[in-house]
Structures are given as structure tokens and as C-alpha cells.
Give the backbone structure.
Amino acid sequence: MPIGGVIFITLFIAAFGTSLIYLARWTGGKAKKTSQAKFDVYECGLPVEEKKDTKISVKFYLTAILFILFDIEIIFMYPWAVNFRHFLATGSGLLVFGSMMVFLLIFIFGLWWEIKSKALEWD
Amino acid sequence: MTSMGNTTFEIVINTIKLLAVFLLMVQAVPILVWLERRGSAFIQNRFGPNRVGPLGLVQLLADAVKFLTKEDFAPEKGNRIMFYMAPVFALIPAAVAYAAIPMSVPLKVGDYTFLIQGYEINVGIVFILGISSLAAYTILMAGWGSGSKFSLMGALRASAQIISYELALGLSIVGIILLYGTFNLTEMIHAQQGIYHFSAFGYTVAASWLPNWGIFYQPLGMILFFSATFAESNRLPFDLAEGEAELVAGFHTEYGGFKMLMFFIGEYGHMMIASGLMATFFFGGYSIWNFTPQEVYNWCYGLVGSEQIANVMNVVLHFLSYNIKFAIFLWIFIHVRWTLPRFRYDQLMDLGWKTMLPWALGNTIVTAIVIFVTSYFVIS
């Protein structure tokens, strides 16, 4: 894997983006504080009452946890998918196919249970 | 050439190549923005930008000059470091992933093989999916750094949406990996060259004119993959991240000027990755309809009679072929944006989890069963 190229392009873009921001700040200048309202966050005409510890719906955490579970299960299929034809050609196809079908049954059961227990309902 | 000189040569070539790929991506953005605005005007029976330069083509240059004269603003209550870091980081995943997509056949100069792509990665699919999903972090950084409720809610929605569709995206291409048995994008394109043919039950079936593209083996996978990439790049009908009717502008409410432009480059970069991957997975990548690169090379050689020029011609023809496919998908992205209305949020999550994920799972299982049955039972 060409790790040098990846690191180089990452650093280059970071430098490029930073210099663009500095350039825009240099040509446009810093925002002048003509009133307090200019520096408040967006609000529809009301005075801002913003707390930083905004409470977030627990559904987002639940979605994130479920995502991690399912994503790992999907990533687990990738090496199997790459080697499947190789295994078929060398004669151990039935074993590899059967064991993945058992795994997929567990996957489907997990998805079914998740839908049934209303973990994915948004209200 | 000594090994030291060789290494220096390699480094110089690859540096130039990576910069070229990055510039290719960045310079495509103004063209795409112009196309999007003119296209939307065309679809909605308006004029669009038509004053600056011929057909309004210089509009984006004028916009860039205006962005430069905007004063630099950051909300007082936000987290300034995150606020400034987010647009810079929005550029990185798009460009890093795009550099891994092969754009043409390798160019052979003497005994040196020059790849027409940023870098060749053996596990290209995993790399591109992994890197491009890092975009969720830039959106979260923008939302959290702004210190605004609208931004935060937009960012949370966007990240929940991106991770939900990541599942369907990842699962929809398992079928194509099963078929080709590789993560390497170049090998995948090699497998799609020539005429449609496959072997089943020990027999070989070949069509007379269909190309050997992935879409003819995995039509459902292609539909699921393309829909999921719309959600990944936050485009309509999945642009709940912006949702201007309810969230002002979502995660970039507080952004303006050049910082806003960088988010745009990131978004269009993701569209370009999606289009490139669509072409690579399902439409034969850079390969030309029904012809293998060797046949194209022979045709070029017969035309000009010089190996070097035939090589260059071969590369240019394949590059054009890739770019035509690429442009068609980009236009579909734009056309869909101005055709479909936005989903409601619960409908969006339902579509991702309860419709696309099971269908992708079914696609994987059916593909595996068909491959297993057709190659396990050989009728002789």
C-alpha cells in the first residue's frame, strides 16, 4: 500500500486548505464588531438563548451502536466474498458456503429482532 | 539508473501525479456548480447564470473573487478551532479516496509503467469506503464547532444518515466482490472487459454483443449502491443534513465565504467518488464497450504504425471512455436533485434500515447461492 502517497496528499490538502482560509482572512479582513447580534449564532430575530450542553435524542446513540454492530458483521463478509471462488475451486466450497449461511441467519435474526423491538422507530 | 536515482524519480513522478489528480478534482467543481445551476434553470424553465462571460461560464470566478473580499467570521460562542478545522478536513477524504480510482490503462514508456491514477491500492474498495466515510467527522466538527442548535441538529442528522446508509452501501457491493473475487479496482476492471460471458454447470455461455459489465450480473446491487451514494454525499432526495425548511441550512448555517466553498468542494468530491465507483464496479471502468485494451491498442497501431503513439492514443481513448461514463453519472446526480422532493426523516431512516439493508442482504445471499450452485454441480 502506498502509504507515502496517502500521507503526502493528506498533508498537502491540509496545508492547501489552511492557506486558503488564511488567504481569505488576509484579503477580506477580520469581521468588525459593529453589534453584538452580528457575532451571535443564527436565530430568527429573537435574542439568542443558547446552552452548549444541548440535550440530544437517545435515538442517535442507539442508531450509532446498531451501526457499529452491523458494520462489523458486514466487514466480516468481505474476506469471505473475496476468497469464495478460490475455496470453490479448491473443493472446500460447501463448508465455506454453509458456515456463511449460518452467519447470515444470525445476521437476519438480529435485524428482525431489532425491527421487532422498535429500535428503529423515529417519532 | 542507480536505485537512488530511481527512487527520486518515482517520488517526483508520484508527487506530480497526486497533485494533478487533486487539481483535476478541484477544477471540476466550478464546472459542476455551473452545470448544476444551468441545469436546474433548464429544468425549471429559468435562465440561470448567463451574464458573466459566455453562457455564464465565468460566474464561478466572479464568485471566488467575491468570497475573497468577504470578512472572516466565526460565531463568538462556538469552538473556534473546530470551526476552522472542519472545512479543511472536508477536502481531505474526498481527494484521498478519489486518487485511488483508476482512470485509464497504464501508459508504458520504455520499461516504466505509468499508472493513470493517484496510487494503486490492493484493497482499493475497503480503502475508498473507509476513507470517504470519514466525511461524517467533518460534518460533526462543523456542527459542534458552530455552537448553534441548527448546526448541531443538522450535523447529528447527517451523521446518523451517513452511518445508516453506510450499511446498505457496504452490503450492496458484496455481490460484486463475490463475482470478481478481488478488492483491487484495476483487476475488477480487467474482469469486466470484452464480451459478456460466464460459465455455469461446466458450460461457458457467451453473448454476441453485450459488454461484460457488472450491471448485467448485479442490477439490484447497482441500484442499491447508487441510491446509497446519494445519501452518502448528502444530495437530494437525501439532503436532510441541510433541510432548509426546518434547519435553516443544517451544519453549515454559520459558514460563509471560502469556508463554505470548501464544504462545496467536499460535497462535489464525494459525488465524483460515487460516479467513479459506479463506473468502476458496474460499467467496466475505463474499458470501452465490447473491446479489450489490447484490441484498441492493435487498432491504434494499425492506424498510426508507431508503438509509442499507439500507446498514448490507447491511454487517451480509455481516459475519454472513463470520463464519458463519469460525466453521465454526475449528470444523473444533478438531474435527480432537481427532480425529486426531500424525504421526511423517519422515512429516510426506514428506507435505509428496513428496505435497502434487507434487499442488499437478499442480493448477497442469492448471488452466493447462484455462484455456489453453478460451480459446485458440474454436468459433464
